[in-house]
Amino acid sequence: MILNSILTLGRTHSGASITSKKRLLEFISAGISADNSEFDADELFNELLARERLGSTGIGHGVAIPHCRSSRCTAITGMLLKLDQAIDFEAVDDQPVDLVFALIVPAEAHDEHLKVLGALATAFNEESFRSELRSATSDQALFERALQS
């Protein structure tokens, strides 16, 4: 997969303490904005929230892939989180979520957006990939395991 081009160690967090879907989206927005000055945290939060209102991005097996398009985004940007406690995310299988891959894409990158989402969904559908990520005990380990996919 192409994670090495969209994910950085600075946007990889193992053991994140988040208590709700809203707080998760705030954490993602703040983290991506802090890492990349082209983003505005409030604007990004509103874009992610608007996408979630269309339907949950919880894909099942304890995984969510919140995503949105942003006019401020110039390159596909990802953030990987392993939560210390699973949260309700209104996922398709009604299971709480503990693995999250946030994806921000340029507004005009329609085909690329769908390809990356598909690749992420395929990877996270593999039990072995989810298990590897869940066994990570540090940001570095989580990042390395994600890139091994």
TrEMBL record:
InterPro entries: PTrfase/Anion_transptr, PTS_EIIA_type-2_dom, PTS_SugarTrans_NitroReg. GO terms for molecular function: protein kinase activator activity. It comes from Zhongshania antarctica. Residues 5-149 form the PTS EIIA type-2 domain. The lineage of its organism: Bacteria, Pseudomonadati, Pseudomonadota, Gammaproteobacteria, Cellvibrionales. Signal peptide: none annotated. It comes from the Bacteria. This is PTS system nitrogen regulatory IIA component.
